[in-house]
User: What shape does this take?
Amino acid sequence: MSPPPWTLSGSGLLAMYAPAPGRPVGALMLVRYATSPVGPYDELLWVALTRTLFGWRPQVAHIWVSTAESAVWGRHNWGLPKRLAHFAWEQGQVRVTGEDGREVAHLAFRMGGPRLPVTSALIPAPLRTLAQPNLEGGEGWLLTPVGAAGHVTPARLTVLQADGLRPPLRQIRPRLTLGVPDFRLVFPVPRQA
Assistant: This one.
């Protein structure tokens, strides 16, 4: 059993998409967790800023992970719609393939430069509180105020293929892309609403 809270560490990439006519507001995240309560795993997700019953909140719309344990417990603990996928890493690239054999995404990335410390404590609480519908037969919503700290560095992302992602990110350039060479992330017990 792996109930919350979870403390995780690892590295990743964050590409933020800003509002524009007909374009999404959200972020694409590619993460390699080195430690977690269910062991190391990889993750690709799209989180969108969404109007909910609780106001504007980030909501994970699509998420793929490399281990079944992460998928099961992410769905159970926080209502994250995790699906299992295979992550094939090459030099500066990753291919994510779903269980059905279809390629979800093929991404190329590069990061480097000065490292700056960051903390999610500087972000207003509503904008760092995930709002997810309860996926495990329960009613209502799960509200999770995520906490993070680490370092960021300049980065570049090229979406070579993203047919499995919604929105289709191949035609949209991120407004800001950051490498995250190290982080510590805390997913607490969610509040049920």
Summary: The two ends are 24 Å apart (CA to CA). Residues 68-78 form the longest helix (11 residues). The mean pLDDT is 94. The chain has one domain: 6-192.
